[in-house]
Design a protein that fits this description.
Ribosomal Protein L15, Chain: K, domain 2; six-stranded mixed sheet; four-stranded mixed sheet
Length: 551
């Protein structure tokens, strides 16, 4: 793995709200501040709503010698390079020649004290900043919106000493490339909005820091879902907080709320407005383009992730030590192929099943990437040689082996199309996590190829792609009339693509018991969990990358 480096370019000023986060959980601070990753929740949305009255700068803030003139000033920004902190004070008032910062919190105070420690430390930071600028400030207040009461916090020596110590610790953690270890079995984790990014129980379980089973902490998939625009000549725009798909000037084809949008997928000659692209960037919603036939062409997702250390480790491991990750990915793929064959084959060849088991074990012991490629190729030939045994023999769908570019039969057409969908989702996921999607471990980097997305796709090809093909054919959901032949290639019709997209999204919504952590989760969420666990491995938080393997 790459040599350790210490980040020395820590920003001069850290927001006071990040001091609050650090006091609550140093790992939360590192994820949100150093890695610049954030995910909202009902609690964060409620907090923003409660702050609405103090988010706009109103009122005058005269110099310290005229502090009595301060009546009511909101959203007061103040910083200090000596303290290394900047704060936005919600409300500033003056009393008897002294200033009093007032911080707004959405919840209620604790029963055994004036406020929670992170809140008191954050308020004390504001008091120290005011003092640093010459104002007299001995106390502050916290307004709890739920109970509509103010609690006074005195800035005594104990609180000031604790606050200064936290500021020193914070800068030390901010200078570290690796995040602190997660809290172990902490009651703080279930309500944390970043629990789906942090994965505390999962990381602790894989690192053997906790013997307890992982709690169901990963948040369920939200209401947001992808939008697929397949009709040629369609235009996608936004109006009044809604995404609108139109044909021509006034023909509204589809409409959905912006908050329900997770992706925009454009096929062929479909257009999207600049206004909607900018809004998608702001909301971290990827926009993806495909050819008319469904080939993934590219994507746009605002600025790249700020977690430079993750990409640095990714590049180093890819060049020098990517084989252990590649071995586990191939091992997971072969095991999942074997499981799918055992579950669905109508004329199972036990010799092939046993050979796949042996090849899965050989993948774990491969000493060179070339030998691992050989193992994967041998397993693929055996598996695809048996794929037709999972299809109903009374239906006119023949499969005599894998072919592509272009696919020469309907089954291969379906496989290629679904693999493209998996790769586009994993490209968006890896980009969102902070990876470079084009630097892989098993698939070598090549111009225009999202190698890391292809790597992660290996374990999902049989579980999502092949499974959808088998179920669609066997259930009569797809028919030969959904395909068209051009020269030697077979492609899906417009209706056929819509049918496949529905089946694919349905499969992603399927819940499955996670084989490692034991909780129920959708395939859509599993893809992100696997990408984040890979990141945890590269950042040395877990000893190995563990592929998603069903039993």
């Amino acid at each position: 793995m790459a040599d350790e480096q210490t980040l020395v370019d820590v920003p001069a000023l850290v927001p006071a709200r990040m001091v609050n986060e650090f006091t609550y959980c140093p790992r939360l601070f590192h994820i949100e501040w150093v890695q610049a990753l954030f995910e909202g929740s009902a609690d964060t949305a409620e907090g923003s709503w409660q702050h609405r009255a103090v988010d706009r700068a109103v009122g005058r803030v005269p110099p310290p010698d005229r502090s009595d003139d301060i009546r009511r000033a909101t959203a007061v920004t103040i910083g200090s390079e000596d303290l290394g902190v900047v704060a936005v004070i919600d409300l500033l008032e003056s009393r008897d020649g002294k200033v009093v910062p007032i911080d707004t919190k959405k919840g209620s105070p604790p029963a055994d004290g004036p406020a929670w420690e992170p809140e008191m430390v954050q308020l004390c930071v504001q008091g120290l900043l005011l003092r640093d600028h010459g104002y007299q400030c001995d106390e502050g207040q916290i307004y709890f919106a739920e109970t509509r009461e103010r609690r006074t916090i005195v800035f005594d020596e104990g609180l000031i000493g604790r606050t200064r110590a936290i500021l020193r610790q914070l800068r030390s953690v901010a200078a570290s490339a690796e995040p602190p270890i997660p809290l172990i079995d902490s009651p703080k984790c279930p309500r944390c909005s970043l629990v789906g990014i942090c994965l505390p129980d999962e990381t602790n379980a894989l690192s053997e820091r906790s013997s307890k089973p992982a709690r169901r902490l990963t948040p369920r998939d939200g209401a947001a879902r992808p939008l697929y625009v397949t009709e040629q000549g369609s235009s996608v725009g936004m109006r009044d907080g809604r995404v609108r798909v139109t044909q021509g000037k006034d023909n509204l084809v589809a409409e959905m709320r912006l908050i329900d949008l997770s992706q925009v997928n454009l096929y062929g000659n479909a257009q999207i407005s600049s206004q909607l692209i900018r809004e998608c960037f702001r909301r971290e919603v990827p926009v993806l383009w495909f050819s008319y036939g469904g080939w993934f062409s590219g994507m746009a997702e605002g600025l790249p992730g700020k977690n430079v250390e993750l990409r640095r480790r990714q590049s180093g491991v890819s060049l020098q030590a990517g084989l252990p990750v590649a071995r586990r990915m191939v091992h997971g793929k072969i095991r999942n192929c074997r499981t799918l064959l055992m579950r669905n084959s109508r004329a199972r060849d036990d010799a092939v099943v046993e050979s796949l088991r042996v090849l899965a074990e050989q993948a774990l012991s491969a000493t060179r990437l070339e030998s691992l490629l050989g193992v994967e190729g041998a397993a693929a030939r055996l598996y695809f040689g048996q794929l037709s045994s999972m299809l109903r023999s009374d239906l006119p769908f023949d499969f005599e082996g894998r072919n592509r570019r272009p696919p020469k039969d309907p089954v291969n057409c379906l496989l290629s199309y679904l693999y493209s969908l998996i790769i586009k989702d994993l490209t968006a996921i890896t980009f969102g996590v902070g990876f470079d999607p084009y630097i892989g471990f098993f698939h070598r980097p090549r111009f225009g190829r999202p190698a890391l997305a292809l790597d992660l796709a290996e374990e999902f090809r049989p579980l999502v792609g092949d499974s959808v093909v088998i179920s669609m054919i066997n259930n009569g959901e797809i028919k030969l009339t959904d395909f068209t032949t051009r020269s030697t290639g077979v492609a899906l019709t417009v209706d056929g693509r819509r049918t496949v997209l529905r089946a694919y999204e349905r499969r992603l919504e399927t819940e499955v018991t996670h084989p490692t952590f034991g909780y129920t989760v959708t395939y859509r969420r599993v893809m992100e969990v696997q990408a984040r666990l890979l990141g945890a491995y590269l950042l040395r938080e877990v000893p190995d990358y563990v592929p998603f393997v069903t039993r």
